[in-house]
Amino acid sequence: MRMSESIQRARARGISSLKLGMSVFMISTLSYYAVGCFIGMNAGFGKSLFSTEDDEWAFIECAYATAITLTTVGYTDLLGTEKAIMYYAEVEVDGHKTRVYRMESNMAGWEDENWPEGVDGELYYNYTNITSILTVLQVVVGITFFLYVIAQVTAFFVEGEYDELVSYQQMKKAVKSFDKHYILIGGGDTGFQTAKQFLEDGVDFVVVDPEKDIQEKINNAIREMRKSHRKVKLPVFLRGDALEDETLLEAGVDRAAGIASVLPSTRDNLVVIVTARQITKESNPELKIVSRALDLGEFPKLFKAGADKVVSPSFLGGLRIASASIRPSVVDFLDLFLIPGFQKEYKFEGVEVKSGSPAENKTIAECGIETAAGVSIIALRHKGSDEFVYNPSGSEKLEAGTTVAFFATESQKSKIKNIVGA
Predict the structure, then answer these.
(1) Which of 90, 299, 329, 366 could bridge 362 with an S-S bond, Cβ 3.0-4.6 Å?
(2) What does the alpha-carbon distance between residue 238 and residue 209 come to, in Å, rounded to a whole number?
(3) 86 near 125, Cβ under 8 Å?
(4) Looking at residue 235, what DSSP letter applies?
(5) Domain boundaries defined on the chain
(6) What is the DSSP string of 313-366?
(7) Burial class of 379 by CB neighbour count within 10 A (0 to 12, 13 to 18, 19+)
(8) What is the CATH number of domain 178-311?
(9) With contact defined as beta carbons under 8 Å apart, do 249 and 279 qualify?
């Protein structure tokens, strides 16, 4: 899934801070070691540049000194940078006059094995200023980097990126627990009304939209539903681009029962349909896709792309207005079952006869579906047919895949589902 831009920025800033911190640490450590080579702690003045055995400022000690300096902990001057003075003396070794050196330091001093005992020697160079300046620079860099990290951490919490990251992780966990859920793609009025119906039906669903508007509207609707002490299944909100494969996969398209794509652009809905079909070709071929269309002329394209159903809000709105004008009583009756809030007991439902169920290959009368549930079957649609059989007789046979439509309460619906195996 494509994370929201703020989470991506937070992750990028975290990675950038980590890289910067590692770079500062390595450069500072190498700086100590290089200065050690320059002033005679690790190389020169009789020491080999290509051997670490005679190093007074060992690399691990330089790293430790860097750590306590950059973090401003400062336990001790481990390397002895407060005093670094090089002395020399002329001595005779094996009949030859040669110069030997002695480093005077408050921590890591050393002298040549041939250094004459009891001799202080002549001043070669006082490196104290160099080592002290280096330490000052390390402290300044350390404080600057520390303040930078504090600023990044503060911004992470204050700007809400932490809360969004936590929500993102919770969202991923919630979606993983879903199976046969629904994915609502797009916001606006159509998306909001679709979400409200999902809430009324108590189904699990994921809302995919790059903006927060739809989330705020749905949360307000949930608060209103809870005022009447109703249990509400909370949806999962995914802020992302549904045109990308990763977003659909994170929404669980490979396990979803259906997709409702209500994006305002037909082109975008086409992309969603094609992408979803490609992703679920093998993993979830039974996925049902319902798409929004702006006008009837777009229906063929959307069906060809792989939509199971196509809905034009403007077309349906026109039909409803006309029906309400001409047949108001019929519309009022249907509103009782189709519009949330009109009445809560009876609903217009449809279930599919499953293979191996008690009703398979039996007639309506034989399986006793109407008697057991106390309802009347309004219509049937057999598998592979686009036509409905209205007011079916008791001799109508129920085969696997047949859809049964009826008006029923929740308890009656449960009894029918037990019979048909839905």
Answers:
(1) 366
(2) 7
(3) yes
(4) P
(5) 5-84+123-158, 178-311, 345-420
(6) HHHHHHHHHHHHHH-HHHHHHHHHHHSTTS-SS-EEEEEEPPTTSTTTTEEHHH
(7) middle
(8) 3.40.50.720
(9) yes
The whole-angstrom separation of Cα 83 and Cα 127 is 8
Looking at domain 5-84+123-158, its CATH architecture is: Orthogonal Bundle (1.10)
The residue with tokens 């798409």 is: 291
Angle between helix 128-158 and 5-39 (nearest 10): 170
Residue 174 identity: A
Query: Tell me: domain 345-420, CATH 3.30.70.1450, correct?
Result: yes
Can you state the angle between helices 128-158 and 161-177, rounded to 10 degrees? 60
Measured CA to CA, the distance from residue 328 to residue 332 in angstroms comes to 6
Are 276 and 289 in contact, with CB atoms under 8 Å apart? yes
Q: What is the Cα–Cα distance from 206 to 228, expressed in whole angstroms?
A: 24
109 is written with which tokens? 């001093």
Question: pLDDT averaged over the chain?
Answer: 85
Torsional sign, CA 163, 167, 168, 170: positive
Per the structure block, which two tokens stand in for 402?
């047949």
Question: pLDDT at residue 341 above 90?
Answer: no
pLDDT, one tens digit per residue, over 65-74 is 888 888 777 7
Q: How far is CA 397 from the centre of its chain?
A: 49
The amino acid that residue 418 corresponds to is N
Q: Cα–Cα distance between 262 and 4 in angstroms, integer?
A: 20
In one-letter notation, the amino acid at residue 357 is S
Helix (H, G, I), strand (E, B) or coil at 176: helix
Helices (H), 40-111: 59-70
How far, in whole angstroms, is CA 401 from its chain's centroid? 38
Please give the order of strands across the beta sheet that includes 403-408. 347-352, 403-408, 377-381, 389-390
- Between the alpha carbon of residue 286 and those of residues 276, 280, 292, 304, 418, the distances in Å are 12, 9, 20, 16, 22
Closest CA to 289 of 250, 242, 221: 242
Instruction: For residues 147 and 164, give the distance between their C-alpha atoms in angstroms, rounded to a whole number.
Output: 24
Q: Is the pLDDT of residue 167 over 60?
A: yes
